[in-house]
Design goal:
This protein is an alpha+beta fold. It folds into 2 domains: about 35 residues, no CATH class; about 160 residues, Chorismate lyase-like (Chorismate lyase). It has 5 helices and 8 strands. The chain has a 6-stranded antiparallel β-sheet, with helices on one face. β1 and β2 form a beta hairpin. It is globular and about 60 Å long. It starts with 7 loop residues before the first helix and ends in a 25-residue tail after the last strand. About 10% of the residues have low confidence.
Length: about 230
């Protein structure tokens, strides 16, 4: 109150907003404390495990996050900007590097269903469909292949958090509804990242289903354990 020259009620409202975003925890008789947040790479496991899929399946998965699919409408905004820190880390870019940002808002049943922001290093987005302010029917993979950097696989990192006020307003989320934040980084055949997408999915509107196939072709023991 003294530092900002505001009333006690204003402070109470500010703390309430921070609680709704999951940034502050309040304990009865103990006061308010900053919530412990997952800090990216510091909390990652021993390393991402790449799930290999066929080309058709890969294109379909990339389309699902940020391109038409079964959406009623997709609003697209394309800009060139300095890479946010999380994107610079994902794409292994130096601080201050420029990227092309394709920002999309998908609508289903006349309400926002998800946002998806895809970032591509500026040198890979010199021309072609990737710069169009319109949905890409087949996703971003063909555009990168045309640039000589076809996608060979991707890694997903998924977190669940409360939305910021701007995110909640854009997605028209009710108070208390968390979002699933998915960071998908796509790699070329030399294991160099070529694009990264951050998708935000309201927790009350989505189900994520992953199917994994175990490849037994390299097994040398013809007998199962215990046989």
């Amino acid at each position: 109150m003294d530092q900002y020259g505001v009333s006690r009620n204003t402070i109470r409202l500010a703390l309430g907003l921070l609680r709704s975003e999951g940034l502050v925890i309040t304990g009865q008789g103990r006061g308010s404390f900053v919530a412990e947040m997952v800090a990216g790479a510091a909390h990652r496991g021993p390393g991402p495990q790449r799930h290999v899929v066929d080309r058709h399946s890969l294109d379909r998965q990339i389309i699902e996050f940020g391109e038409p699919g079964d959406a009623d409408r997709v609003d697209v905004t394309v800009t060139t900007r300095t890479a946010p820190s999380v994107i610079a880390d994902a794409l292994r870019l130096p601080a201050g590097a420029r990227v092309l940002e394709r920002r999309r808002v998908l609508f289903r049943d006349r309400q926002p269903s998800q946002t998806a922001d895809t970032y591509v290093p500026e040198e890979l987005a010199a021309d072609g469909d990737i710069r169009r302010s319109a949905p890409l029917t087949h996703g971003i993979a063909p555009a990168l292949e045309q640039a000589g950097r076809p996608i060979s696989g991707h890694v997903d990192e998924i977190t669940v958090r409360m939305p910021s006020p701007v995110e909640a307003q854009e997605l028209q989320i009710a108070t208390g509804v968390p979002v699933v934040a998915l960071l998908r980084t796509a790699y070329d055949a030399t294991d160099v990242p070529v694009c990264a997408t951050i998708a935000l999915l309201p927790g009350d509107r989505h189900l994520l289903r992953y199917s994994v196939v175990v490849d037994r072709s390299g097994d040398s023991d013809p007998h199962p354990e215990g046989a």
